[in-house]
């Protein structure tokens, strides 16, 4: 497939992990070149087995072969989380992204609904003011701003995808029940949104095909108590769900506990208004599809 300039469409995905690989699959075919980076040689082999041209990227230095591949990139997806030193790709590119990727036409940055912080269960949209709580969410806001500024400077569309809790094949409540790690934590009025990983890929492709930039909540239709998802998965499996545990007395890692410090209902109305159709809009039908298809193990 060629882009508007007659070049072969070349999607480069930095951080080609769970979501990145789903995006790669959404773009695959029609002669589109897909390049992905990962942190280890073992994972690079797994990407290559999926038909993705793979490079190891440690977040510090760009391998000469990777630099060469980037020269023909028409589409960039940045999925690597920022750290205290900021976004690794922005840091390496400095103000020179155009020199690294002269054919670039569209940029996608994967962020998180964590940037909104806590809204005590209220509905929020892309217009809602940001009140990030966790350090990782503050770093995400800074990275979002950095990529949006790149878009302005280079006159390129930058799509920022704010993702809810990601699940899908190999990463879901069925897997957790099978491993014995599923828990039903009860915290009054707590809800979360979630998103099937395939819908992330489809959304990126949808926005790319229309050369759209902007900020988008990529999330399902139905914020729900997390214990309900575990109970529904157990019902489908025909097993007893784990016992309910009060959140307040449960042993949790600081990271897990911090997630419960934020309570909001995230709207996807902006994406829907553009005509994007979620394939997995709510968790019941999504879990039923995962279970009946046998794909829940990945």
TrEMBL record:
Transmembrane segments: none
Family matches, as Pfam families: Epimerase
Signal sequence residues: none
Annotated InterPro entries: Epimerase_deHydtase, NAD(P)-bd_dom_sf
Keywords from the UniProt entry: NAD
Domain spans labelled NAD-dependent epimerase/dehydratase: 15-176
Keyword tRNA processing: no
Name of the protein described by the UniProt record: Nucleoside-diphosphate-sugar epimerase
Biological source species: Rhizobium lusitanum
């Amino acid at each position: 497939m060629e882009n508007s300039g007659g070049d072969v469409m070349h999607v480069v995905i930095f951080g080609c992990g769970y979501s990145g690989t789903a995006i790669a699959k959404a773009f695959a075919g029609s002669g589109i070149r897909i390049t992905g980076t990962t942190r280890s040689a073992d994972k690079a082999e797994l990407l290559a087995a999926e038909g993705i041209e793979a490079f190891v990227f440690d977040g510090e230095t760009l391998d000469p072969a990777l630099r060469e591949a980037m020269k023909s990139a028409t589409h960039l997806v940045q999925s690597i989380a920022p750290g205290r030193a900021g976004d690794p790709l922005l840091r390496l590119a400095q103000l020179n992204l155009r020199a690294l990727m002269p054919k670039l036409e569209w940029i996608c940055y994967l962020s998180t609904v964590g940037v909104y912080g806590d809204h005590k269960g209220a509905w929020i949209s892309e217009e809602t003011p940001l009140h990030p709580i966790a350090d990782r969410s503050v770093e995400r806001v800074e990275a979002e701003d950095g990529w949006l500024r790149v878009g302005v400077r280079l006159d390129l569309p930058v799509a920022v995808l704010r993702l809810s809790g990601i699940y899908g094949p190999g990463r879901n409540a069925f897997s957790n029940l099978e491993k014995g790690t599923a828990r039903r934590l009860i915290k009054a009025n707590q809800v979360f949104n979630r998103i099937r990983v395939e819908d992330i890929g489809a959304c990126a492709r949808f926005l790319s095909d229309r050369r759209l930039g902007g900020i988008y909540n990529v999330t399902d239709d139905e914020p729900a108590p997390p214990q309900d998802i575990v109970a529904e998965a157990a019902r489908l499996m025909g097993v007893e769900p784990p016992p309910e545990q009060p959140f307040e007395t449960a042993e949790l890692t600081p990271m897990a506990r911090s997630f419960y410090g934020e309570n909001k209902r995230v709207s996807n109305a902006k994406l829907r208004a553009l005509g994007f159709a979620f394939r997995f809009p709510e968790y019941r039908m999504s879990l039923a599809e995962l279970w009946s298809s046998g794909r829940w193990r990945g």
